[in-house]
């Protein structure tokens, strides 16, 4: 009887270790997918107090990974690309220097890391409530997923100014 219990316990331990290893490998792959910053972004409208409502289309092998990537991509787009279309007047990128991402690579690496500071500027998103039309299979192994995200751009600008990453609006005059 004790031998059977020990055998069952060993099998459970082995299965648990295989499952955790598979999750780590899956997270590494999803991280690689989302840190390429391949996305499209368009404005849906402006909220109050410096908040933009935007639609972000992210690409990934799994739709659930693209949902989380949309938050990161929304903040990245506001900083480096700017947004246009939809219900907004064109909004230029916060970073006026096209080389800023490379010049401040260490800052942005930690800023956009999983659970990084970028997430504090994402006010709301359509986590898990994605409409059928927002998920498009574009190849055998890739999906294009559209997610609505609200980003507090005013707070983002202040934070980047305080960190010395971008210049304040008053420095232009």
Question: Would you mind describing this structure in some detail?
Answer:
With 173 residues, the protein is α+β, with helices and mostly antiparallel strands. It has 2 domains: 1-30; 35-172, no CATH class. It has helices spanning 2-34, 63-80, 100-103, 105-111, 153-162, and strands at residues 39-46, 51-60, 122-125, 135-139, 142-152. Strands 1, 2, 3, 4 and 5 form a 5-stranded antiparallel beta sheet that branches. It is globular, with a radius of gyration of 20 Å. It starts with a helix and ends in an 11-residue tail after the last helix. 24% of the residues are buried. Mean pLDDT is 79; it is low at 20-27.
Structural class: alpha+beta
What oligomeric state is this?
A: single chain
What percent of residues adopt helix (DSSP H or I)? 40-55%
Largest sheet: 5 strands, antiparallel
Total individual domains: 2
Radius of gyration equals 20 Å
Order of helices and strands: HEEHHHEEEH
Number of helices: 5
Query: What would the principal axes of the Cα set say about the shape?
Result: globular
Find the count of extended strands (DSSP E, 2+ residues): 5
Task: Indicate the mean pLDDT.
Answer: 79
- Low-confidence stretches are 20-27
What attributes does this structure have?
173 residues, alpha+beta, 2 domains, five-stranded antiparallel sheet, 5 helices, 5 strands, 22% strand, globular
Q: Can you lay out the helices and strands and say which pair or pack?
A:
Elements: H1 2-34, E1 39-46, E2 51-60, H2 63-80, H3 100-103, H4 105-111, E3 122-125, E4 135-139, E5 142-152, H5 153-162
Antiparallel strand pairs: 1-2, 2-5, 3-5, 4-5
């Amino acid at each position: 009887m004790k031998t059977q219990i020990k055998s069952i316990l060993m099998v459970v331990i082995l299965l648990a270790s295989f499952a955790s290893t598979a999750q780590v490998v899956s997270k590494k792959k999803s991280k690689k997918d989302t840190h390429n910053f391949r996305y499209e972004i368009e404005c849906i409208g402006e909220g109050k107090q410096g908040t933009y409502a935007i639609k972000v289309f992210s690409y990934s092998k799994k739709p659930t990974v693209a949902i989380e990537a949309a938050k990161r991509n929304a903040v990245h787009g506001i900083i480096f690309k700017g947004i246009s279309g939809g219900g907004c007047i064109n909004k230029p990128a916060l970073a006026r220097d096209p080389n800023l991402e490379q010049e401040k690579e260490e800052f942005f690496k930690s800023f956009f890391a999983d659970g990084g500071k970028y997430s504090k500027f994402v006010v709301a998103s359509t986590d898990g409530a994605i409409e059928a039309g927002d998920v498009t299979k574009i190849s055998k192994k890739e999906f294009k997923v559209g997610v609505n995200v609200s980003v507090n751009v005013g707070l983002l600008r202040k934070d980047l100014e305080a960190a010395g990453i971008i210049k304040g609006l008053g420095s232009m005059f």
